[in-house]
Design goal:
Strand content: 15-25%
Number of strands: 11
Order of helices and strands: EHEHEHEEEHEHEEEE
Number of helices: 5
Low-confidence stretches: none
CATH architecture: 4-Layer Sandwich
Mean pLDDT: 92
Radius of gyration: 17 Å
Largest sheet: 6 strands, mixed
Oligomer: single chain
Helix content: 10-25%
Strand order of the largest sheet: 5-6-7-8-10-9
């Protein structure tokens, strides 16, 4: 089984397959980015592979507007698993989202998906970790809620599962890469891999949280950081 990951696709296809928000305004490397994603994806991802997509998939404002982007993902090889990002304004209730998803796409919210007897995927959007303490009650409330959602997701995994992969949209640490409640929770549940996005190539310091730390393998999988190519994070026959 091979598991890939890619976040922050920022798609904007209408039902006719035309893009209404060209991403080239964010830099030349974003020009024709959806074509780059499709070409790279088809080159390396096989029909039996799994691709984890931790948020910011679509610029759509409503679930109906997201249909073109979901159709784009559906026609690419492999099974896709998604969570909500900070730009996922089209994401209504999880029941409505799951009802609208094409057959090859599944969503996680407060639960997990079992990929095999010993591999499970959990996840939640997460939130920006503070440098010190939160200065307003609203951010503190959202942060606490996301910690609770990750705990529910992790707690739902059967005890017999040996490999747990966590999907977050926001990084699990602040810019000083300090221990956070997200990391502590993943340690408590002996998480093997944590994938996250939100950060784009031009904003990432080369020493940011990647590789193994605190007993967890961390992967930044933002599309432009990975040159619009899914990253293999798990490969076991």
């Amino acid at each position: 089984m091979r598991i890939f990951a890619l976040s922050d696709l920022h798609l904007s296809f209408d039902k006719q397959g035309n893009s209404y928000k060209p991403m080239g305004i964010f830099g030349a490397h974003w020009e024709a980015h959806s074509r780059k994603i499709a070409e790279n994806w088809r080159r390396i991802v096989a029909p039996n592979d799994i691709v984890l997509l931790p948020g910011d998939l679509s610029w759509a404002m409503t679930l109906q507007e997201a249909e073109g982007d979901l159709a784009y993902l559906h026609q690419l090889p492999g099974r896709k698993i998604i969570i909500r990002g900070n730009h996922e304004l089209w994401w209504n209730s999880i029941t409505q989202v799951r009802r609208a998803l094409p057959p090859s796409i599944s969503a996680i919210q407060n639960d997990h998906i079992l990929l095999s007897d010993d591999v499970a995927v959990c996840g939640t959007r997460g939130w920006q970790c503070p440098e010190e303490n939160f200065t307003d009650a609203q951010n503190a409330k959202i942060f606490a809620r996301e910690i609770g959602r990750l705990q529910m997701s992790l707690a739902s995994v059967p005890k017999t599962v040996a490999t747990i992969i966590v999907m977050l949209h926001f990084p699990p640490v602040n810019y000083r890469q300090e221990m956070s409640p997200f990391v502590k929770l993943m340690q408590d549940y002996e998480v093997c891999h944590c994938i996250y996005g939100h950060l784009h190539a031009k904003t990432v310091d080369e020493n940011y949280l990647m590789g193994r730390k605190w007993g967890i393998n961390f992967h930044l999988v933002s599309a432009d950081y990975l040159h619009f190519s899914p990253k293999c994070i798990y490969n076991k026959s």
